[in-house]
UniProtKB/TrEMBL annotation:
The keyword Signal applies. GO terms for cellular component: extracellular region. Residues 444-666 form the Glycosyl hydrolase family 67 C-terminal domain. This is Xylan alpha-1,2-glucuronidase. Keywords: Carbohydrate metabolism, Glycosidase, Hydrolase, Polysaccharide degradation, Signal, Xylan degradation.
Length: 672
């Protein structure tokens, strides 16, 4: 007896070791003890349906009866279910009777729809639903749901904080790392259907036959998961690779070179998605080098991929030294006049805000300003300005805040621009700069995985909100114990605001240290280009602080539709959270709180630090309820975050005090 007890304990230990919670399994951890005890029928014979079955087999409870199918199956078609609204990728899940047998039908118009349905069913079950209540329907509101990897061919990742690139270009082709499949599976589970493999600061080499073959190998792995491969294209590649004298998009030889290049790529990757281009920005080559426009450049590339069904995602993130007075105005100034001149397979990809992925930015004024052009949203999932991988900041509220912003044109919001419903665009997209690397937990920390997750869910439906997504992520990631889930969700929901508070509250932005962008540097004022300097953004002096973007300043607010511009013209009607983004305000201005701006500012910095302290004690409270490995790493990072939140606060306040000569408000503790 004693022996069998010991054996039993040993078996448990071993099982535990096999499931060491290092975060590798992401939110996909709901496996049952005895897989394959369920009955899963496939109506159709495709690799994608087989993958869907495999997913269900690992997680469905014993006795479950599920049928995976497409609407093309005659028996399914005979049920006359509402398949039409599902489009190419939507799914429906229903209890039905097929061939006299009760079963839960998981189906779409395509096998990809059925695969998304399988993942939706698993999500439903992992978040407390039952098979009996599994009646679900959903179709993506956005067509291209794409990760942008800023991955270099030398396997480093620009602004990547989770290890080297997943793509092992060195061994690729010969070795197909099983991790590529795990990556595709994770993406499919949240509806992501495209991936740009290489950095927007692209090297021409990625378009050479060697790298095309490697990209094709990845595309082969991703295809059954419904994921297309795209490449960032270096605009000057015809010179670097083709030996041409120019990359002028109006040159016939240049256009012919790109056409031949596209044909070559499509021979290797028949369903290649298309190109992403960063042109004439931060030193990248582009059509403007030749006096041609962004539309000339985009349309020339679009013509090359068009015969194959490809598209071009042309980024609006441009800033050059053409108008150093206000960097925030440049994208609008250059792109707005081009509305209506882009080919029908071009999307213009616009960052959520007009500067650069700051912890808070007002929505980019291009949204709503180019009705004739599909505008693709670009969010940054990797937290370049929100504490890299170490700080806990859930980005759901940031995404939601941007997407829900009214553009001032009727009922239009940024979400209705992005999902095409405002203007009836069919080609629509959302891009997220990935936070994925070779770390065991993919994203550098457990909570960073939530940012990948929420991006996928909101790309599928930009009207979804941050809190329920945080909840479903936490349930799938930590299990359904309400104490853990509630704690995680509470911590997450205020975490981004805390970062805003301790790095740059009330509309301040771009105050970080130079180059690496980690930690405070509001005092920096000696960099070559004016708009690289934090001082350019805060404009603080003895009297006040903030960037005047009204008529008396850069007049950037004129780029918004008039109801919005009117509201922003007056500091009294500007949302307080954006005050110093749009106005230069006296330190002594009376705020709605009854305090002065200076006192409010200090209170915000303090609140941010306190929030992190609170997260630490909340996380301490679930210590025994979360596996040691993930609990400890999170706890360690929270301690780092608290120390660095203080660093941000104390350094920033000390600097502001050196300018405004004011003492710390009495109610606030002196910086430690
Ligand atoms: C930011 C970031 C760069 C990146 C650029 C872009 O400026 O710091 O690393 O290349 O955005 O989006 O192109």
């Amino acid at each position: 007896r004693a022996g069998s007890k010991i054996l039993g304990a040993l078996a448990l230990l071993l099982a535990g070791a096999a499931h060491a919670e290092d975060g590798y399994r992401l939110w996909l951890r709901a496996a049952v003890a005895t897989p394959a005890a369920a009955t899963i029928t496939l109506r159709g014979d495709t690799r994608t349906l087989a993958l869907a079955r495999h997913e269900l087999a690992a997680s469905l409870p014993a006795g479950a009866n599920v049928t995976l199918a497409t609407s093309a199956d005659p028996a399914v078609a005979a049920l006359k279910l509402p398949f039409a609204p599902l489009g190419d990728e939507g799914y429906l899940i229903r209890p039905v009777t097929l061939n006299g047998q009760p079963t839960v039908l998981v189906a779409g118009n395509s096998d990809r729809g059925a695969l998304y349905g399988a993942f939706a069913l698993l999500r439903h079950l992992a978040t407390g639903g039952t098979l009996a209540t599994a009646t679900l329907t959903s179709a993506p509101k956005v067509k291209l749901r794409v990760l942008n990897h800023w991955d270099n061919l030398d396997e480093t990742v620009e602004r990547g904080y989770a290890g080297d690139s997943l793509w092992d270009w060195w061994t690729l082709l010969d070795r197909i790392d099983p991790r590529y499949t795990d990556y595709a599976r994770a993406n499919a589970s949240i509806g992501i259907n495209g991936t740009v493999l290489n950095n927007v600061n692209a090297k021409a080499d990625s378009l050479t036959p060697r790298y095309i073959a490697k990209a094709a190998a990845l595309a082969d792995v991703f295809r059954p998961w419904g994921i297309k491969v795209y490449l960032s294209a270096r605009f000057s590649a015809p010179i670097e690779l083709g030996g041409l004298k120019t990359a002028d998009p109006r040159d016939r030889q240049v256009a012919a070179w790109w056409k031949a290049k596209a044909d070559e790529i499509y021979r290797a990757i028949p369903d290649f998605g298309g190109f992403l281009v960063k042109a004439n920005s931060e030193g990248q080559p582009g059509p403007r080098d030749y006096g041609a426009s962004h539309a000339d450049g985009a349309n020339m590339l679009a013509a090359a991929v068009k015969p194959h069904g490809g598209i071009v995602m042309w980024r609006a993130f441009v800033y050059a030294d053409t108008d150093p007075s206000d960097r925030a105005k440049q994208a609008y100034t250059e792109f707005k006049p081009l509305d209506g001149t882009f080919a029908d397979n071009v999307l213009v990809q616009v960052k959520n805000g007009a500067i650069d992925f700051q912890p808070r930015e007002p929505f980019h004024p291009l949204f709503g300003a180019m009705p004739k052009t599909p505008l693709m949203m670009e969010f940054q999932i990797t937290k370049e300005y929100l504490g890299f991988a170490t700080h806990l900041a859930y980005l759901g509220p940031l995404f939601q805040e941007t997407l829900a912003s009214a553009t001032g044109r009727g009922k239009e919001t940024v979400a209705t621009v992005v999902d095409g419903s405002s203007e009836g665009h069919r080609l629509t997209g959302m891009a997220g700069v990935a936070n994925i690397g070779r770390d065991r937990d993919w994203s550098g920390s457990t909570f960073n995985q939530a940012n990948w997750y929420v991006f996928g869910r909101m790309a599928w439906d930009p009207t979804l909100t941050a809190e329920p997504i945080a909840r479903e992520w936490a349930q799938q990631t930590f299990g359904t114990d309400a104490r853990v889930v509630d704690t995680a969700v509470t911590m997450m929901m205020g975490s981004r605001e805390a970062v805003v508070d301790y790095t740059g509250p009330l509309g301040l932005a771009h105050l970080m240290a130079t180059g690496h962008h980690y930690g405070p540097g509001p005092w920096v004022d000696d960099l070559k280009r004016p708009e690289w300097n934090p001082a350019y953004y805060h404009k603080a002096d003895r009297q006040g602080i903030g960037f005047d973007r009204t008529k008396s300043g850069s007049d950037a607010i004129a780029q918004y539709a008039s109801p919005i511009a009117k509201r922003l013209a007056d500091p009294g009607t500007t949302p307080e959270r954006e005050l110093l983004w749009f106005h230069h305000v006296a330190w002594d201005r009376k705020m709605p709180s009854g305090r002065t701006l200076w006192e409010d500012l200090v209170a915000h910095y303090d609140r941010g630090v306190a929030y992190v302290g609170n997260m630490r004690s909340q996380w301490d409270g679930v210590r025994t309820l979360v596996d040691t490995e993930r609990w400890q790493k999170t706890a360690t990072y929270l301690a780092v975050q608290e120390r660095e939140a203080r660093w941000w606060r104390d350094a920033s306040l000390t600097y502001w005090m050196s300018l405004n000569g004011r003492p710390l408000p009495a109610s606030v503790a002196a910086p430690e």
